Here is the input.
Amino acid sequence: MSEDTGRLFCRLVEIMSRLRSPEGCPWDREQTHQTLKKDLVEETYETVDAIDSGDMEELCGELGDLLLQIVFHAELACEKDDFCIDDVLKGINAKLIRRHPHVFADAAASCAEEVIDRWEKIKSGEKGFQGRTSVLDGVPKTLPALSQAMKISKKAARAGFEWPNIDAVVNKLEEEVEELKEELKTGDSERISEEIGDLLFTVVNVARWQNIDPEDSLRQMIRRFSARFRCIEDAAKKSGRSIEDMTIEEMDAVWEAAKRRHQ
Here is the structure.
């Protein structure tokens, strides 16, 4: 961290305050916590995309956009005397120190799992956690479904609701596939939907046992699918046709060739 860090951060706060002032920007003055929610989500996902791309220049820019969202919300709260950016910084500083006694106090932790267990125990005694009646409380309902499933699965496992080994999870996965097959025969869309949900949740548990983020895994698969599908589109263009004119056999051949090239 350079000597300029504090000055630059203060400058960002000053700029945001100026944008919100009567002499500032009409668009910025109209914003509220509610109107900015989608921007916060979009900037978060754009940051994730930048991380996945490996482009550090892009990541630097996206982190700035994400930081702006935090400062923007803090400015809105400050105007109503709810809290200010100083309170945000004090809060996160205190939280990090409190939840890392193995770094800032005399506690010890030999592995990441011990850190997580202690983190959860410390959290349970903090303000806002005492009113929770279930170990599953606190998982944001606005999370993407796969991420939400992963968090719930981890919480349940820490409470002891867990398979004995990965083989048992895979057996459950196979069981869910068979149940889905049976429901597909009935044509009952409600039951089919339930079985698909059961199957997806079990897949999430397989990912958890392998320490794989299912959300990230699916994003990577989507990128692979998109790249290979574009190869099919390119093949159609080179042959002077549209993709709709290709047979499924031709598509499969291009798909497999693209798959081999990018393995």
About this structure: The radius of gyration is 25 Å. Residues 214-238 form the longest helix (25 residues). Residues 52 and 216 are 9 Å apart (CA to CA). The chain has twelve helices and no strands.
